[in-house]
């Protein structure tokens, strides 16, 4: 996004960085290489997989756990008030309490110059004029309903500034980028052509898989589920100007 991963104006010599929901750890490693002075910790609910041939920088470590438990007594890896940067991306499927997450993160940051940076989406699609086009998509309304039952938020991207303000963070900034659903033929840049192909092929699969997880055991007929799969593919078909929004929000813990 804008050719840079981190938008926060963090210290040039940070000592501790936390990557929340690190997945494979690829971003944790990137952050560790960018800031050699810092211990870069990747945190995830599941173990970070061992990737054959990957050599981790000496300043990288991985922890299995829930960010909502950090800072509590008996948890020594990360303590309140010591982190220069907390970073998270695409936590929708795993974050059941966004206000609590932001408040927990705020306490973990260094007073005065610790930054929280959140990268996430709103599950609202727009046409080329900026008009919402997904309000009547039945499968999306079903996802929203099931997410609400679990405390998940499909508009977590645009809500991050409010939660940061409620947690007492200051100097809050938000940048919104378009994640386009255009075809490769509509893109001029080679990277965007490849990205468009990825979005066309993989995004319907990922979203349908998420829907299947949400409705598992709810008694839906196979025919009904298959109809949703087809409709997701239809609704997300490439179209010039079609997009959803990817929000990058960052804020600082005051003194």
TrEMBL record:
Keywords: Methyltransferase, Transferase
CDD domains: AdoMet_MTases
GO molecular function: methyltransferase activity
InterPro entries referenced in this protein's UniProt entry, alphabetically: SAM-dependent_MTases_sf
Pfam (any one): Methyltransf_23
Source superkingdom: Eukaryota
Gene Ontology biological-process annotations: methylation
Keyword set includes Repressor: no
Protein name in the entry: S-adenosyl-L-methionine-dependent methyltransferase
Organism from which the protein derives: Lophiotrema nucula
Organism phylogeny: Eukaryota, Fungi, Dikarya, Ascomycota, Pezizomycotina
């Amino acid at each position: 996004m804008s050719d840079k991963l981190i938008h926060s104006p963090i210290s040039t010599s940070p000592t501790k960085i936390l990557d929340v929901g690190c997945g494979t750890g690829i971003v944790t490693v990137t952050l560790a290489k960018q800031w050699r002075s810092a211990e870069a910790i990747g945190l995830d609910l599941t173990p970070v997989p061992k990737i054959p041939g990957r050599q981790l920088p000496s300043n990288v470590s991985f922890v299995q756990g829930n960010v909502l438990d950090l800072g509590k007594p008996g948890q020594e890896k990360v303590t309140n008030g010591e982190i220069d940067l907390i970073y998270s991306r695409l936590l929708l499927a795993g974050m059941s309490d966004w206000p609590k997450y932001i408040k927990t993160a705020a306490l973990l940051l260094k007073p005065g110059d610790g930054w929280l940076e959140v990268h996430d989406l709103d599950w609202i699609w727009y046409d080329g004029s900026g008009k919402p086009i997904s309000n009547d998509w039945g499968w999306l309304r079903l996802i929203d309903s099931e997410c609400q039952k679990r405390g998940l938020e499909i508009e977590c991207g645009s809500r991050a500034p409010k939660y940061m303000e409620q947690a007492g963070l200051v100097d809050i900034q938000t940048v919104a980028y378009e994640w386009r659903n255009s075809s490769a033929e509509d893109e001029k840049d080679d990277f965007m052509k490849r990205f468009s192909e990825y979005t066309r092929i993989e995004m319907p699969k990922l979203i349908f898989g998420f829907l299947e997880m949400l409705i598992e055991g709810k008694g839906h007929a196979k025919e009904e589920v298959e109809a949703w799969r087809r409709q997701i593919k239809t609704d997300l078909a490439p179209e010039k100007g079609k997009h959803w929004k990817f929000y990058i929000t960052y804020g600082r813990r005051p003194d």
